[in-house]
Design a protein that fits this description.
With 215 residues, this protein is an alpha/beta fold. The chain has a single domain, classed as Vaccinia Virus protein VP39 (Rossmann fold), CATH 3.40.50.150. The chain contains six helices and nine strands. The strands form two sheets. The protein has a seven-stranded mixed β-sheet with strand order 5-4-3-6-7-9-8, sandwiched between helices. The chain has a two-stranded antiparallel sheet with strand order 1-2. A hairpin with a 2-residue loop joins strand 1 and strand 2. It starts with 20 loop residues before the first strand and ends in a 6-residue tail after the last strand.
Length: 215
Amino acid sequence: MALVPYDEHVLSGLKRFHNSSTTYTFSNHTIRIKQDWKELGVAAVVWDAAVVLCMYLEAGGVNLQGRSVIELGAGTGLVGIVAALLGAEVTVTDRDMAMEFLKSNVHDNVPKDLEHRVSVKPLNWGTGLQHFSHFDVILGADIIYLEETFQELLETLIHLSSEHTTILLSCRLRYQRDHNFLDMMRKYFTVDQVHYDQKVDVYIYKARKAQRQEF
Protein backbone atom coordinates (compact mmCIF):
# COMPACT_ATOMS: atom_id res chain seq x y z
CA MET A 1 0.00 0.00 0.00
CA ALA A 2 2.66 2.51 1.01
CA LEU A 3 4.94 3.70 -1.75
CA VAL A 4 8.07 4.58 0.22
CA PRO A 5 11.32 4.48 -1.76
CA TYR A 6 13.76 3.01 0.77
CA ASP A 7 17.42 4.03 0.83
CA GLU A 8 19.19 1.36 -1.22
CA HIS A 9 21.90 1.03 1.43
CA VAL A 10 19.36 -0.04 4.06
CA LEU A 11 18.49 -3.28 2.28
CA SER A 12 21.54 -3.64 0.08
CA GLY A 13 21.50 -7.40 0.51
CA LEU A 14 18.14 -7.79 -1.20
CA LYS A 15 19.54 -7.77 -4.72
CA ARG A 16 16.54 -9.51 -6.26
CA PHE A 17 14.37 -6.49 -5.56
CA HIS A 18 16.55 -4.41 -7.86
CA ASN A 19 15.91 -6.68 -10.84
CA SER A 20 13.68 -5.07 -13.46
CA SER A 21 11.51 -8.19 -13.64
CA THR A 22 10.96 -11.58 -12.06
CA THR A 23 9.24 -14.69 -13.43
CA TYR A 24 6.89 -17.23 -11.83
CA THR A 25 4.78 -20.15 -12.97
CA PHE A 26 1.30 -20.52 -11.49
CA SER A 27 -1.77 -22.32 -12.81
CA ASN A 28 0.25 -23.51 -15.85
CA HIS A 29 0.99 -19.92 -16.87
CA THR A 30 4.31 -18.12 -16.98
CA ILE A 31 3.95 -14.77 -15.25
CA ARG A 32 6.60 -12.12 -15.86
CA ILE A 33 6.30 -9.33 -13.32
CA LYS A 34 7.97 -5.97 -13.85
CA GLN A 35 9.60 -4.42 -10.77
CA ASP A 36 10.54 -0.79 -10.11
CA TRP A 37 12.17 -0.46 -6.72
CA LYS A 38 13.99 2.76 -7.57
CA GLU A 39 10.89 4.76 -8.51
CA LEU A 40 8.08 3.17 -6.49
CA GLY A 41 9.84 1.42 -3.62
CA VAL A 42 8.27 -1.38 -1.61
CA ALA A 43 5.04 -1.53 -3.61
CA ALA A 44 6.80 -2.29 -6.88
CA VAL A 45 8.64 -5.50 -5.98
CA VAL A 46 7.42 -9.03 -5.30
CA TRP A 47 7.70 -9.93 -1.62
CA ASP A 48 7.84 -13.48 -0.26
CA ALA A 49 4.39 -13.07 1.29
CA ALA A 50 2.85 -12.62 -2.18
CA VAL A 51 4.52 -15.76 -3.52
CA VAL A 52 3.48 -17.82 -0.50
CA LEU A 53 -0.11 -16.61 -0.85
CA CYS A 54 -0.11 -17.51 -4.55
CA MET A 55 1.15 -20.99 -3.69
CA TYR A 56 -1.57 -21.36 -1.06
CA LEU A 57 -4.26 -20.31 -3.53
CA GLU A 58 -2.94 -22.61 -6.25
CA ALA A 59 -2.96 -25.51 -3.78
CA GLY A 60 -6.67 -24.93 -3.17
CA GLY A 61 -6.49 -23.15 0.14
CA VAL A 62 -9.75 -21.45 -0.84
CA ASN A 63 -12.00 -22.05 -3.84
CA LEU A 64 -11.81 -19.04 -6.15
CA GLN A 65 -13.79 -20.34 -9.11
CA GLY A 66 -16.45 -17.79 -10.01
CA ARG A 67 -15.98 -15.85 -6.78
CA SER A 68 -15.58 -12.09 -6.42
CA VAL A 69 -12.12 -11.24 -5.11
CA ILE A 70 -10.41 -8.00 -4.17
CA GLU A 71 -6.68 -7.63 -3.58
CA LEU A 72 -5.63 -4.80 -1.28
CA GLY A 73 -2.27 -3.08 -1.63
CA ALA A 74 -1.63 -5.14 -4.74
CA GLY A 75 1.74 -3.61 -5.63
CA THR A 76 2.93 -5.61 -8.63
CA GLY A 77 -0.42 -7.40 -8.98
CA LEU A 78 0.96 -10.94 -8.78
CA VAL A 79 -1.64 -12.24 -6.31
CA GLY A 80 -4.57 -10.75 -8.23
CA ILE A 81 -3.26 -12.15 -11.51
CA VAL A 82 -2.99 -15.64 -10.02
CA ALA A 83 -6.49 -15.35 -8.55
CA ALA A 84 -7.85 -14.54 -12.03
CA LEU A 85 -6.01 -17.52 -13.53
CA LEU A 86 -7.68 -19.68 -10.87
CA GLY A 87 -11.14 -18.57 -11.98
CA ALA A 88 -11.96 -15.56 -9.82
CA GLU A 89 -13.53 -12.24 -10.81
CA VAL A 90 -10.82 -9.95 -9.46
CA THR A 91 -10.57 -6.29 -8.50
CA VAL A 92 -6.92 -5.35 -8.03
CA THR A 93 -6.31 -2.22 -5.96
CA ASP A 94 -3.56 0.07 -4.73
CA ARG A 95 -2.92 3.79 -4.35
CA ASP A 96 -3.34 6.17 -7.29
CA MET A 97 0.37 6.62 -7.93
CA ALA A 98 0.80 2.87 -8.52
CA MET A 99 -2.02 2.52 -11.04
CA GLU A 100 -0.11 2.68 -14.32
CA PHE A 101 2.56 0.28 -13.08
CA LEU A 102 -0.07 -2.12 -11.73
CA LYS A 103 -2.18 -1.95 -14.88
CA SER A 104 0.87 -2.74 -16.99
CA ASN A 105 1.64 -5.94 -15.09
CA VAL A 106 -1.99 -7.05 -15.19
CA HIS A 107 -2.30 -6.31 -18.91
CA ASP A 108 0.92 -8.17 -19.72
CA ASN A 109 0.05 -11.31 -17.76
CA VAL A 110 -3.70 -11.88 -17.94
CA PRO A 111 -4.63 -13.83 -21.10
CA LYS A 112 -6.97 -12.05 -23.49
CA ASP A 113 -9.79 -14.48 -22.84
CA LEU A 114 -9.62 -13.72 -19.11
CA GLU A 115 -9.29 -9.93 -19.26
CA HIS A 116 -12.99 -9.51 -18.50
CA ARG A 117 -12.34 -11.08 -15.10
CA VAL A 118 -9.93 -8.41 -13.90
CA SER A 119 -10.31 -4.72 -13.12
CA VAL A 120 -7.67 -2.40 -11.66
CA LYS A 121 -8.90 0.39 -9.40
CA PRO A 122 -7.37 2.92 -7.02
CA LEU A 123 -8.20 2.42 -3.36
CA ASN A 124 -6.77 4.43 -0.51
CA TRP A 125 -7.70 2.58 2.65
CA GLY A 126 -10.42 4.23 4.66
CA THR A 127 -11.52 6.61 1.88
CA GLY A 128 -13.92 6.27 -1.04
CA LEU A 129 -15.22 2.99 0.34
CA GLN A 130 -18.73 3.79 -0.85
CA HIS A 131 -17.56 2.89 -4.36
CA PHE A 132 -16.90 -0.70 -3.26
CA SER A 133 -19.34 -3.35 -2.06
CA HIS A 134 -18.82 -6.74 -0.41
CA PHE A 135 -16.54 -9.38 -1.91
CA ASP A 136 -16.43 -13.13 -1.46
CA VAL A 137 -12.69 -13.11 -0.83
CA ILE A 138 -10.28 -10.37 0.28
CA LEU A 139 -6.56 -10.92 -0.29
CA GLY A 140 -3.61 -9.04 1.13
CA ALA A 141 0.11 -9.85 0.97
CA ASP A 142 2.48 -8.04 3.31
CA ILE A 143 0.10 -5.17 3.93
CA ILE A 144 0.46 -5.27 7.73
CA TYR A 145 3.54 -3.17 8.39
CA LEU A 146 2.76 0.55 8.69
CA GLU A 147 1.13 1.24 12.05
CA GLU A 148 -0.29 4.56 10.91
CA THR A 149 -2.41 2.72 8.30
CA PHE A 150 -3.83 0.09 10.66
CA GLN A 151 -7.06 1.89 11.54
CA GLU A 152 -7.83 2.66 7.87
CA LEU A 153 -6.97 -0.89 6.82
CA LEU A 154 -9.26 -2.33 9.48
CA GLU A 155 -12.08 0.01 8.42
CA THR A 156 -11.57 -1.09 4.82
CA LEU A 157 -11.68 -4.81 5.69
CA ILE A 158 -14.87 -4.32 7.66
CA HIS A 159 -16.54 -2.37 4.84
CA LEU A 160 -15.61 -4.86 2.12
CA SER A 161 -16.69 -7.97 4.01
CA SER A 162 -19.94 -9.67 4.91
CA GLU A 163 -20.45 -12.68 7.16
CA HIS A 164 -19.74 -14.82 4.10
CA THR A 165 -16.44 -13.18 3.15
CA THR A 166 -13.12 -14.95 3.57
CA ILE A 167 -10.09 -12.73 4.26
CA LEU A 168 -6.60 -14.12 3.64
CA LEU A 169 -3.65 -12.09 4.88
CA SER A 170 -0.13 -13.30 4.13
CA CYS A 171 2.58 -11.64 6.18
CA ARG A 172 5.90 -11.82 7.96
CA LEU A 173 5.38 -10.76 11.56
CA ARG A 174 8.36 -8.48 12.04
CA TYR A 175 7.36 -6.41 15.04
CA GLN A 176 4.97 -6.37 17.99
CA ARG A 177 2.83 -3.84 16.14
CA ASP A 178 2.05 -6.50 13.51
CA HIS A 179 0.65 -8.75 16.25
CA ASN A 180 -1.25 -5.73 17.56
CA PHE A 181 -3.05 -5.37 14.23
CA LEU A 182 -4.20 -8.98 14.38
CA ASP A 183 -5.53 -8.25 17.86
CA MET A 184 -7.40 -5.25 16.43
CA MET A 185 -8.95 -7.52 13.82
CA ARG A 186 -10.11 -9.99 16.46
CA LYS A 187 -12.55 -7.39 17.79
CA TYR A 188 -14.54 -7.79 14.55
CA PHE A 189 -13.42 -11.09 13.02
CA THR A 190 -12.46 -14.61 13.92
CA VAL A 191 -8.79 -14.87 12.95
CA ASP A 192 -6.94 -18.17 12.53
CA GLN A 193 -3.49 -19.10 11.29
CA VAL A 194 -3.97 -21.50 8.37
CA HIS A 195 -0.45 -21.78 6.94
CA TYR A 196 3.18 -21.14 7.82
CA ASP A 197 6.08 -21.27 5.40
CA GLN A 198 9.11 -21.86 7.60
CA LYS A 199 11.57 -21.34 4.76
CA VAL A 200 10.67 -17.66 4.34
CA ASP A 201 8.98 -17.10 7.73
CA VAL A 202 5.61 -16.14 6.25
CA TYR A 203 2.24 -16.75 7.89
CA ILE A 204 -1.21 -16.84 6.31
CA TYR A 205 -4.19 -15.85 8.44
CA LYS A 206 -7.83 -16.45 7.57
CA ALA A 207 -10.46 -14.12 8.97
CA ARG A 208 -14.26 -14.02 8.85
CA LYS A 209 -16.87 -11.85 10.49
CA ALA A 210 -18.61 -13.67 13.31
CA GLN A 211 -21.62 -11.38 13.04
CA ARG A 212 -22.59 -8.01 11.65
CA GLN A 213 -20.61 -5.17 13.18
CA GLU A 214 -21.01 -1.42 13.03
CA PHE A 215 -17.66 0.29 12.68
